């Protein structure tokens, strides 16, 4: 669900931004991992493989499909022989691909697979879940439709009226939009987006002082952003920008981004000291960070 790329001013060199994977199209493949071939074997934790850039050099005609029983799972993988010196693991749309030197035996390759099985099954599961979400039907902008707001769904109610108006009922979690009978879908979207942005401005404005006080810092200003590549940003002068689409998510995720940006007023970098600062005011930052990273564009309505 690509969003329209907006024109943006050149980035401020003194600005640090919290990048987001959320608005980007899913990568063609998961990050690959590299493992030394047996003659150069260096043990590494099976659940923490090191990333490496995908390499070529293989002969596509030499790809062979194989199966391996790993515990209770029958794992299918494609084996590609190449001139490389290490065993490479790659998760893509077709599953697991192994690229290995020609002189490494299948038994040695399958031993390496078992060592990395936790990483392999974790990435295969993530891939399947992401593919399933992409296949879900897009939201229909009709009466009774639902869309995410602060981590839970709200129900859209549409009334035909001479004037325009919008009303929120927290008890029933219904957002009622009144529009003229001849109003089109885009007018409905604009009304809902305007309301969500107003809510974002209100919620962010309430949460920023909370974490600024905890950290003992002052920010100069904050504004909403519609950036397609950032959750938020902070300049050395204390100007905070927060992506309005955060309003779709639960409050802890919003708080994490706010804590992240305010922490840059202490550390204008992403050093260990910076992350220690984030943790000091938002101890659950790692879980929130993972949740944001795992959120896909297919979970949000298209405006």
Secondary-structure arrangement, i.e. CATH architecture of the largest domain? 2-Layer Sandwich
Overall geometric form: flat
Q: How many structural domains are formed by the residues?
A: 2
Count of DSSP H/I helices: 6
What integer value in Å does the Rg equal?
24 Å
Which structural class do you get from the secondary structure elements? alpha+beta
Strand order of the largest sheet: 2-5-6-4-3
Q: Which quaternary structure do these chains form?
A: single chain
Element string (H = helix, E = strand): EEEEEEHHEEEEHEEEHHH
Determine the fraction of residues in helical runs and give it as a percent range: 25-40%
Strand content: 25-35%
CATH class of the largest domain: Alpha Beta
How many strand segments? Answer: 13
Mean pLDDT: 80
- Write the CATH fold name of the largest domain: Zincin-like
**Uncertain regions: pLDDT < 50 for 5+ in a row?**
1-14, 19-31, 40-61
The CATH homology group name of the largest domain? Metalloproteases ("zincins"), catalytic domain
